[in-house]
Amino acid sequence: MDGVPVERSQRLSRAAAQRLSLYLRCVADWPMDGEPVSSGRIAEAVGVSDAQVRRDLAALGHLGQRGVGYDARELATAIRTALGIDRPWRAVLVGVGNLGRALLKYRGFRAQGFEIIGLFDSDPTKVGKDVEGLTVESVTALGARVAELQAELGVLTVPGDTAHVVADALVAAGVRGILNFAPVVLKLPRRVRLVTVDLAIQLEQLAFQVQHGDSAARATDEE
Amino acid sequence: MDGVPVERSQRLSRAAAQRLSLYLRCVADWPMDGEPVSSGRIAEAVGVSDAQVRRDLAALGHLGQRGVGYDARELATAIRTALGIDRPWRAVLVGVGNLGRALLKYRGFRAQGFEIIGLFDSDPTKVGKDVEGLTVESVTALGARVAELQAELGVLTVPGDTAHVVADALVAAGVRGILNFAPVVLKLPRRVRLVTVDLAIQLEQLAFQVQHGDSAARATDEE
User: Fold this and answer.
1) Tens digit of pLDDT for each residue in A173-188?
2) How far apart are CA B135 and CA B117, in angstroms?
3) Which residues of chain B from 55 to 114 reach within 8 Å of chain A, CB to CB?
């Protein structure tokens, strides 16, 4: 969508970007050539207020019609542009254990334009094996292969004790962002972005909501 | 910590609860009988402002000393109490595939007081098998077993097309919260809490940060 000025979408906070990801899930389920989607429907599905949805979407430019709603296709395009996923992203995955295999099978990545194009492991018994249509390569090849594969992102599914060494190798190989599943705090150069998925935090958040019942049930993380 | 009034911690927003989880990771790495932890150190490690950390921790009650910092042990206890993880939580896991196995091996759960005490799968070839010290049971046994095991939480690692049926079975069996890894939007009764981990969203957030560079690099999701 060329109606979104770059400066505007750059000002999105991380919290707003996360909400946009959720709105996109909701809009993607909507019939693309059907009725307009209302902010109320999105708000209900995602669990934030109607006003928050309207504010977030207003920040993307002139979308939707008052009292009518948003065109699903146009809205999906605008959100993808704002998030930077209106183009494919190429990623390598390091650590072909249970979690790595689960991610390779995960259809959601490809559906959102993320393609895993290289697999690496330090275990010599895994190197050379075929997993989900890719051949596992040695981590020692990362330096050369990331550039050859033109991979921008690295997915780290190695044990905590080797995560740092592998992250450093990915950085040296030139990736621009790392999705880290290892339960460690990684220190990376500022130019490389890091998202850490700490699965225990998700369980903690669930426990928090169960413990505190309805008062915490509605998302109150609005801005 | 008995200094935290229940009403106060109930007023925590989900965003604040998420930040507390991150502070807890940082504090847990600190020597427990060592020097006090400063809000600045926590802020730097987590990537939010010093003021935000101080505000969040002030909401937990009288902690820390101005100009000195927080006692690591006291702070960890206060955060655990506020989040409701100052007691163990019992969970069952449904779907013993790659992701389920990865979660069973994940040491972070037990470290934070989450214990997976029952495994269920619909695949008859998996039922009866021993996985990580537990015997896989049939999903048809969920109704009786959740109560027997006194499980409060369910972890859902089944494919998207069966997630709804299994979630309904978990709800009927009496769990109070579900951690859902299936890429579907579940509709549950209001009394049952739901946290959905959408792994593609994590990759989207990484792409967003890479795309927009430093402007999005600092967490700006402050309240």
Assistant:
1) 999 999 999 878 788 9
2) 10
3) 83-85, 89, 91, 97-99, 101-103, 105-109, 111-112, 114
